């Protein structure tokens, strides 16, 4: 097949990747799922035309989304992932022997099926015996889980489509109720260049609900604007400071996250600081 290019276009912005072959195209009940073999970046997953990951840089996003809340907590035992059907956050959580249970609540079973078939190095996260899969809307799932989790990670699509309720204040309040004392959340919090109003809103909501909150920047070249953020929050002294060191065995496996970066990621440029204080 001749080479061609795939573009994610959003808000007057585009991110284009050269691809060699379309490996999969499915319409699930919730979204259009596309998977390509790219020329230079390994495999590429899109949902409704929006880039979710490439093999090239998925480690940056998945390591940060998993490890920021895991190390903001001094003793996490029970984790919940909402969204994250590709399995990347599960894979990172699986590197933590201290976790006793890892639940995932993904709305679209077809995303899991596609990841299992085409993204084995990412979906291997499902092979961990501590993982329990729930197919449901995460915003409903958390409602009846009082004091159940130490860490909740929301690896969601953007606010359009099935991810919409995961960006509302009610969901953040429900997550707080689902946390055990001292629990920490980390949520996909968009790019301040692309969606500044969402960065500002999620931060304002978190500040109203949690004692400590912060916006961490993550460099991901294949997301439009080359970056994305995580909103990290919890009823702790300061989630921006790691609560414990990284065990050397885990540190050797990580390609992006480290203790210095945990602190540094929350240092924001002035225009972002203003968004966070708006
Ligand atoms: N890292 C990605 C990004 O930001 O581009 C997100 C990856 S992950 C594939 C996003 C997942 O969230 C999708 O599989 C989607 O089906 C799931 N999702 C969207 N809305 C959801 C909801 N309300 N409850 C549970 N999962 C949801």
Radius of gyration: 18 Å
CATH level 3 topology of the largest domain: Rossmann fold
Write down the secondary-structure element order: EEEEEHEHEHHEHEHEHEEHHH
DSSP helical segment count: 10
Main pleated-sheet profile:
7 strands, mixed
**Architecture of the largest domain, according to CATH?**
3-Layer(aba) Sandwich
* Structural class based on helices, strands and sheet pairing: alpha/beta
- What's the level 1 CATH class of the largest domain? Alpha Beta
Contiguous uncertain segments of 5+ residues: none
Mean pLDDT: 96
Helix content: 25-40%
What is the number of E strands?
12
In what order do the strands lie side by side in the largest sheet? 8-7-6-9-10-12-11
Shape from CA axes? globular
Bound molecule types: S-adenosylmethionine
**CATH homologous superfamily (4th level) name of the largest domain:** Vaccinia Virus protein VP39
Describe the secondary-structure layout:
Elements: E1 4-10, E2 13-27, E3 32-38, E4 43-47, E5 50-54, H1 58-72, E6 78-83, H2 88-93, E7 101-106, H3 109-118, H4 120-123, E8 131-135, H5 138-141, E9 149-155, H6 169-178, E10 179-188, H7 196-209, E11 212-219, E12 227-234, H8 248-253, H9 259-264, H10 270-276
Parallel strand pairs: 6-7, 6-9, 7-8, 9-10
Antiparallel strand pairs: 1-2, 2-3, 3-4, 4-5, 10-12, 11-12
Bound molecules: S-adenosylmethionine.
């Amino acid at each position: 097949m001749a080479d061609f290019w795939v573009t994610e276009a959003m808000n007057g912005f585009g991110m284009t990747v050269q691809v060699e072959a379309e490996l999969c195209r499915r319409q699930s009940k919730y979204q259009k799922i596309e998977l390509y073999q790219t020329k230079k970046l390994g495999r590429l997953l899109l949902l409704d035309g929006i880039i979710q990951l490439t093999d090239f840089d998925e480690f940056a996003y998945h390591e940060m989304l998993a490890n920021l809340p895991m190390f903001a907590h001094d003793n996490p035992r029970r984790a919940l992932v909402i969204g994250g059907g590709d399995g990347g956050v599960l894979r990172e959580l699986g590197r933590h022997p201290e976790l006793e249970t890892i639940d995932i609540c993904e709305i679209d079973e077809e995303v899991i099926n596609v990841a299992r078939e085409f993204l084995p190095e990412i979906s291997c996260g499902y092979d961990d015996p501590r993982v329990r899969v729930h197919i449901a809307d995460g915003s409903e799932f958390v409602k009846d889980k009082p004091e159940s989790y130490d860490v909740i990670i929301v690896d969601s699509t953007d606010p359009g489509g099935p991810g919409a309720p995961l960006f509302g204040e009610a969901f953040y309040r429900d997550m707080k109720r689902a946390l055990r004392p001292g629990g920490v959340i980390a949520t996909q919090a968009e790019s301040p260049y692309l969606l500044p109003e969402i960065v500002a809103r999620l931060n304002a909501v978190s500040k109203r609900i949690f004692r400590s909150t912060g916006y961490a920047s993550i460099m991901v070249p294949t997301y439009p604007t080359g970056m994305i953020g995580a909103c990290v929050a919890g009823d702790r002294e300061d989630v921006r400071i790691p609560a414990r060191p990284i065990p050397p065995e885990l540190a050797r496996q990580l390609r992006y996250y480290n203790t210095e970066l945990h602190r540094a990621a929350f240092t924001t440029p002035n225009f972002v600081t203003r968004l966070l204080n708006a």
